[in-house]
Design a protein that fits this description.
By secondary structure, this protein is mainly α. Helix content is about 85%, strand content about 0%. The radius of gyration is 36 Å and the shape is rod-shaped.
Length: about 210
């Protein structure tokens, strides 16, 4: 499981690619009542038709706002998912660092035990040469295996340290992304407020225009 985790997140080690929300590009239709009245002052039918044209433009704005809200919701969810993923990744890297440190300690302890046995063998003159040589070869082989294992642990420790740094870099990138999400949410609320204001103005004028002869 830990190997799978490391492989899954090693892609993070390449670089923390900047992420951005999709910018808003909604232009709310202007409701120029005074201009339309002046233009069609003696043509109530044309005036009502012109108001209907504005109503159609605002209807398009309503669809754009609906789409932007759905998009923002997805972006908010993405930020939350990535935040949770990175936090879990940091938690697991901390656990792996402890595991690797413990493994390194165990290997070094074994290494010291073998070195102690090697020193004892060197000082023991009562064993015959065959026994001494055989035991020495066994201890030497164990030392080599432990050396390989220690280098492997060191490599894993370096990899996990690099991964931890990469995750932290991604967290910094994510914070910038989340700020963009908040800013977009504010901008969208402002645009929607303008839309509602203009729609209310238009509806009031359409109601008034119905009584025009």
């Amino acid at each position: 499981m830990r190997k799978i985790f490391v492989l899954a997140f090693m892609a993070l080690g390449l670089s923390a690619m900047a992420q951005h929300v999709t910018p808003l590009s909604i232009e709310i239709a202007e409701v120029k009542i005074d201009s339309l009245r002046s233009l069609y002052i003696n043509e109530p039918t044309m005036y009502r038709a012109s108001l209907n044209v504005v109503a159609q433009e605002l209807a398009k704005n309503a669809e754009q706002l609906k789409g932007a809200k759905a998009e923002l919701k997805d972006e908010q969810a993405h930020g939350k998912e990535m935040d949770a993923s990175l936090k879990e990744a940091l938690k697991m890297t901390a656990e792996l660092k402890k595991v690797y440190s413990k493994e390194e300690g165990a290997l070094k302890s074994m290494q010291k035990t073998i070195e102690k046995q090697q020193r004892k063998l060197t000082s023991n003159r009562r064993l015959n040469q065959d026994a001494r040589d055989s035991y020495a070869q066994m201890l030497e082989k164990q030392q080599k295996e432990l050396g390989y294992s220690l280098r492997e642990v060191a490599d894993r420790q370096r990899s996990i340290a690099d991964l931890e740094t990469s995750i932290q870099n991604w967290q910094t990138t994510l914070q910038a992304y989340k700020q963009e999400v908040v800013q977009k949410e504010t901008e969208l609320a402002q645009i929607e407020a303008i839309y509602k204001e203009r729609l209310a103005t238009l509806k009031a004028e359409q109601k008034s225009a119905k009584s025009m002869q």
